[in-house]
Specification:
- With about 525 residues, this protein is of the alpha/beta class.
- The strands form 3 sheets. Strands 7-8-6-9-10-11-12-13-14 form a 9-stranded mixed beta sheet, with helices on both faces. It has a 6-stranded mixed beta sheet with strand order 15-16-20-17-18-19, with helices on both faces. A 5-stranded parallel beta sheet has the order 3-2-1-4-5, sandwiched between helices.
- Helix 7 packs across helix 14 and helix 16 packs parallel to helix 17.
Length: about 525
């Protein structure tokens, strides 16, 4: 069967009758099943749970569904004898179904490999499919993906952000409108599956970036080394630009070790003065010294820190994301002027260092998207001296290093979540001087009301309360968005209760919002 699979590198190849098992039926699994059915494959979807909408649609698109427990390999999957298994990103390497596929030698793809193989369904005027730009990192992926797509569009290119950002790549490649470029956000889970590629036509992006690397998803990968190895696959077979973070040596080593197309360049970025082939900051001006002929002696201005501050985009980690996105856009010849124009209209997503309430002398900042210590460290750097709301589900990550590095500067800490004990122990060991408040409420609707009550007691006029949990939300909330919304609602309710004696709103620190 490997011979036939090797030939399936185009939408226009003969996919008919291919036995394809799709694992999982979320948005990604459904996109894979829908695509394969449209191609004429024989599709069986195997899942533990399925939304009613997707379950109803599967027979309409021509796929079959098996639903039940997945602690062992279902007999129905074995009897189906698939030629290829396409796994949704949530299936970890140690999952029984993934182990079965690898042990039996069945081809195992992720949705990204399938999308690459059929990327030529809709082509550009010159007959070529859209260029791919890949974005990963422990933090900043979504913001950088959105920034890059916005910059490409400002430069006159038809660009779509897709992948882990929410729109499956398989939906983007099948969009009849077509695109010049796809900016693909990739999780470490998706990249692990990319590392399994064995066919002749492997994913080969125009440009790629790993923004940073820190402990995350260790339970899924099994170790930090495995997590790092997965992230490094973002650079595999890059054709033009391997963009890396000069402030994070791990990303530089990834580029040095990457198997790339001959001629691909290493492009660095950080907040310091750039060398040739880098982007950086000089006297408050963001500049490009990589994509111009005389880069030994000149630099091109992209924007200024003053302009970014006025737009609420001057937090250091946001500036780093802007530089990374600009490097990706410049690799496709987007002009500096277009990049500057794009930034003027760009807004961060909700729950990313978002000021959600100001009143009674206190500013409330929602960075619920900070679901790991690395992201929370950036938030704490933007708001030194804040009252820190921290905790949740730590996903096997040790929070002690973050508390040691940043916790001591907090005015107080309010600890929430299932893994509170680990957070409290870290403060006792590394920042015992910081006043600590625990929220032991187990009912979701009660948690944030108590958080706000305790934070308000600790706050003085001019203080900031920062929700930067450094942990996942699923122990107590439906999502990080739900967590942030409840925080904002509770803060506004507290302000409303004291509206008669509100203080003047404090000025925000540079880099906020």
């Amino acid at each position: 069967m490997s011979g036939r699979l090797d030939s399936l590198t185009s939408w226009h190849a003969d996919w008919s009758g291919l036995r394809a098992a799709v694992l999982g039926l979320s948005v990604t699994g459904f996109a894979a099943a829908d695509t394969l059915a449209e191609l004429g494959a024989d599709v069986l979807v195997v899942t533990e749970a399925a939304a009613d909408e997707y379950a109803r649609l599967l027979p309409v698109v021509g796929a079959r569904l098996w639903q039940g427990g997945l602690d062992a390999v279902p007999a129905e999957l074995v009897d189906f004898d698939p030629d290829v298994v396409i796994a949704s990103p949530g299936f970890a390497p140690q999952h029984p179904l993934i182990a079965w596929a690898r042990e039996t030698g069945v081809a195992l793809w992720g949705d990204i490999e399938l999308a690459w193989r059929v990327r030529d369904k809709v082509v550009r005027a010159d007959g070529t499919p859209a260029d791919w730009i890949l974005v990963t990192g422990t933090n900043g992926k979504t913001t950088t993906t959105q920034l890059a797509a916005t910059m490409l569009a400002a430069g006159g290119l038809r660009a779509a952000p897709c992948g882990n950002i929410g729109v499956p790549v398989l939906d983007a490649v099948r969009d009849p409108a077509g695109f010049d470029a796809l900016v693909v956000e990739l999780s470490s889970h998706q990249l692990w599956y990319l590392g399994l590629q064995a066919g002749p036509d492997r994913v080969s992006p125009h440009a790629a970036v790993c923004l940073n690397l820190a402990d995350d998803h260790l339970q899924w990968h099994g170790s930090f080394e495995a997590y790092r190895a997965a992230k490094a696959h973002v650079y595999d077979h890059t054709r033009v630009a391997c963009v890396y973070n000069k402030a994070d040596p791990a990303t530089m080593r990834m580029v040095e070790d990457a198997d790339v197309v001959e001629g691909a360049r290493a492009i660095g970025f950080d907040l310091g003065s750039p060398g040739p082939s880098d982007l950086g900051v000089v006297e408050g001006i963001l500049v490009d010294r990589a994509f111009l002929d005389d880069r030994q002696h000149r630099a091109l201005e992209l924007t200024t820190l003053d302009e970014l501050r006025a737009l609420g985009l001057s937090a250091p980690h946001v500036v780093a994301n802007i530089l990374a996105a600009a490097a990706l856009a410049r690799s496709l010849e987007v002009s500096p002027e277009a990049i500057s124009d794009a930034l003027r209209g760009f807004r961060l997503d909700p729950h990313r260092i978002e000021v959600v309430a100001v009143g009674r002398g206190v500013t409330w900042v929602d960075d619920s998207k900070a679901t790991n210590p690395h992201a929370a460290a950036s938030s704490l750097a933007a708001y030194p001296g804040a009252i820190w709301v921290v905790g949740g589900l730590l996903k096997g990550v040790d929070i002690a290093a973050l508390v040691a590095a940043r916790g001591g500067a907090a005015k107080a800490a309010v600890v929430i979540g299932a893994d509170r004990a680990e957070v409290v122990a870290a403060f006792a060991r590394h920042a015992p001087q910081v006043p600590l408040f625990e929220v032991d409420h187990t009912q979701t609707e009660d948690v944030m009301a108590r958080v706000v009550e305790l934070a308000a007691e600790a706050a003085d006029d001019g203080d900031v309360v920062l929700l930067a949990p450094a942990a996942a939300s699923f122990d107590q909330f439906a999502s990080y968005a739900d967590r942030g919304q409840r925080f904002a609602a509770a803060a506004r309710e507290w302000i409303g209760k004291g509206s008669d004696d509100q203080h003047d709103a404090p000025s925000l620190p540079s880099g906020g919002a």
